[in-house]
Specification:
CATH class of the largest domain: Mainly Beta
CATH architecture of the largest domain: Sandwich
CATH superfamily of the largest domain: Galactose-binding domain-like
Number of strands: 18
Structural class: alpha+beta
Strand order of the largest sheet: 2-5-4-16-13-18-8-7
Strand content: 35-45%
Number of helices: 1
Largest sheet: 8 strands, antiparallel
Distance between the termini: 131 Å
Number of domains: 2
């Protein structure tokens, strides 16, 4: 081979080697940038702050509020968890305080509030929340019986819990039931059940407060993760001593429910019209 040919071959090899090195460096640079962008994106997701529910009255810390600047088009308001254990949601100012459905994702890191059709997309609104992790008699007399500290009697049903989402699940046997012991002043109470159920209607349950009994046929809420707060009726508590509440199965069809708890709200007697008194 001539000296010219050898020189030409060496030059080509050097150029080729230089191009390969440049190409590798470019690939490494692009990979680093993509990796950095991915880390930044992931970081933004992981650093999302939980939605803060305001306490409008320090004497009633179990009542929270959330001001919504613009109602979403689909009326599904997304909150970032964990939030305090929600047992009821309603639109502030609603005289009937009609309960609104709320939903969790499996890890309870996202909560969806299913706003009613009465709420117009684009408008602002304020939501009220009743929250309580544990069973308690609250400062306004409301009694929350929470799944978190209930007694489960049976072979299969049991507590499932994530931060802000406690429920009795795996409830597939009719003989299993849930029980609470609690103190309450004598009086009349409105009873509400907080639950979710995926299968169709069919299962019937009995809620018993001391000697008072309320029957309810569970309705499909749409998913095991979508919760309804439903009114069952009123009961009277005669003595201001220890009381017992149970939730038992009367008839079972394709499982029972995820039970979040019971709410007992004092029924205030009608106010007397003092203007007519002598």
């Amino acid at each position: 081979m001539s000296n010219f040919s050898m020189h030409t071959t060496q030059s080509v090899n050097r150029i080729f080697s230089g191009l390969m090195v440049s190409l590798v460096l470019m690939i490494m640079l692009v990979s680093t940038q993509v990796s950095g962008q991915t880390e930044q994106t992931t970081g933004k997701v992981s650093k999302r702050q939980p939605t803060e529910l305001q306490i409008p009255d320090s004497d009633l810390p179990h009542l929270r509020e959330l001001k919504v600047e613009s109602i979403p088009d689909d009326r599904k308001l997304k909150l970032t968890g964990p939030v305090p254990h929600i047992v009821r949601v309603w639109v502030k100012g609603d005289p009937k305080q009609k309960a609104i459905r709320f939903q969790f994702n499996p890890a309870a890191t996202e909560i969806t509030i299913h706003l009613p059709k009465s709420q117009t997309p684009g408008d602002s609104t304020t939501l009220s929340f009743l929250v309580s992790d544990n069973s308690a008699t609250l400062s306004d007399g409301v009694i929350v019986l929470s799944a978190l500290d209930s007694e489960v009697v049976g072979d299969e049903a049991g507590l499932e819990t994530h931060p802000g989402n406690h429920r009795i699940g795996f409830w597939n046997h009719a003989d299993d039931y849930v029980k609470w012991s609690f103190d309450a002043p004598a009086g009349k109470y409105q009873v509400q059940l907080v639950y979710s159920r995926a299968p169709a209607t069919g299962t019937q349950v009995t809620i018993q407060i001391d000697d008072s009994q309320l029957d309810y046929q569970l309705v499909r809420t749409g998913s095991w993760y979508i919760y309804d707060t439903v009114h069952l009726g009123d009961v009277s508590v005669e003595d201001a001593d220890a009381h017992t509440a149970t939730v038992k199965v009367k008839k079972i069809k394709k499982g029972v429910m995820n039970l979040k708890g019971l709410i007992l709200t004092p029924v205030k007697p009608p106010q007397k019209d003092s203007s007519n008194s002598k």
